Amino acid sequence: MKKYYWVLVIFILAKFILQYSLVSPEYDLQRDEYLHFDQGYHLAWGYLSVPPVTSWIAWLIRMLGGSEFWIRFFPALFGALTIVVVWKIIEELNGSLFAKILASAGLLFSILLRLNMFFQPNSMEVLLWTLFFYILIRYVSTEKVKWLYWGGIVFGIGILNKYNIAFLALGFIPALLLSSQRKIFLNPHLYLSGLLTLLIVLPNLIWQYEQHFPVIHHMKELSERQLVNVNRWNFMRAQALFFIGIGFAIIAAFYALLFYPPFKKFRFFFWGYVITIGLFVFFKAKDYYAIGLYPVYIAFGTTYLGTILREGWKKKCIQPVCLLHPVILFFPLYSLLFPNKSPEFIAAHPEWYKKFGLLRWEDGEDHSLPQDFADMQGWKELAQKVDEKYSRLSKTGNTLVLCDNYGQAGAINFYSKKGIRAVSFNADYINWFDLSKAYKNLIRVKDYSENQDEIRETGPYFDITEKVEYITKPFAREKGTAIFSFEGAKIDINNRVQNEIREVKQEY
Fold first, then answer.
1. Which of 219, 263, 381, 410 lies 20 to 30 Å from 175 when distance is taken between CA atoms?
2. Terminal-to-terminal C-alpha distance of the chain
3. Which phi and psi (to 5°) does residue 485 adopt?
4. In what order do the strands lie in the sheet with 423-424?
């Protein structure tokens, strides 16, 4: 073990401890996590919502037992590895131990704690962006072609994790062209590494082609329903808050990339940031899309600060202040950014949550809880109530559990004690119907806004109709969701489902 690596190990352990202590037991998993976990039961080269890497991790979680512990473990692991890669970047830049500790503290006590709470592609995305930047730095420093090929591999995996990495290319290709490093485009190995990237993503491209490119439909839907509510000023404000404890190092990085002679060959990183952020703003991207940019700038900034603060009174006075800054600023954020307070407490004390825009949901309106927190409520209650009805209905025939959205279906599948495999015409669940069974009964889980006419519309097709009850968790996003049961079908349920699947897929 290299000198001082024991310090890095301490930060890694602290990362895992913090991640597991930030979520109160009053909260379930978050809506998207259920969908991503269910993808582990249906491995494919593509999905309607995300590329396939998340499903591979979900499959591994299943092999490890599929508990909430392992679902939370992997995002924490990717966050810890991000700290490791930044440590390695600082080593490559000949940074001091102070620079490594400062960067690690800045990353530990940052927005990454919130991002790494959830089993989503975002944690892996930040790691892959940071790893790609490390490889790019190694290539610029050594000009060894092996780093081009490693870059091609990492970029390919990045595409298979989340298509958002395209913004990295769109931002940094022109930045390289504007710098002395444009000579990279004369290296034939760059294009061979690009071919390697293409080979890695080819199975997903084939899947997209065979499915008529659902990613286009997904992006259009995202733009119409969510990105339309994005405020560009709020996007820029969020960038300042994400790494507020280490923000001074990011500012130092921008200065150093422009004026610090040892960083001259890396000056394109400054323009890469400007162009990439400009693209995010232009396309009204969600604020967290840009988080993957910042770890490398933290590495540049702390390396520079470690150089100018290494002697005399600066070392004795300013270095300790810099190290304490991320920790001190973390304490007020600890009370706001994480579901470690009860929903009742948050609803009764909305002032600071509202001030930082945390109560604004994708619909552009303010609510009682942050959206992610509301998406972590009511799921166990839903599964328990569906289980109770399923136990009785299944005695009279096969029962289909059909939900309005992927969160409902995934949560029932995760928490059910009856082995239920609920489905939906929403998201990837449309491809996961098991029509090898002849269904006689139906449990229908309906959103609050759409459940009023369910008995009138569906009841005539069954012998027995019953509305079970509502989801009652007061602060759950699913509050008011209704559970209906229909027994003794007078129609061919399977045929109706097949027709509905065809109609929905035509929209794609």
1. 219
2. 53
3. -125, 140
4. 423-424, 398-403, 439-446, 482-489, 462-470
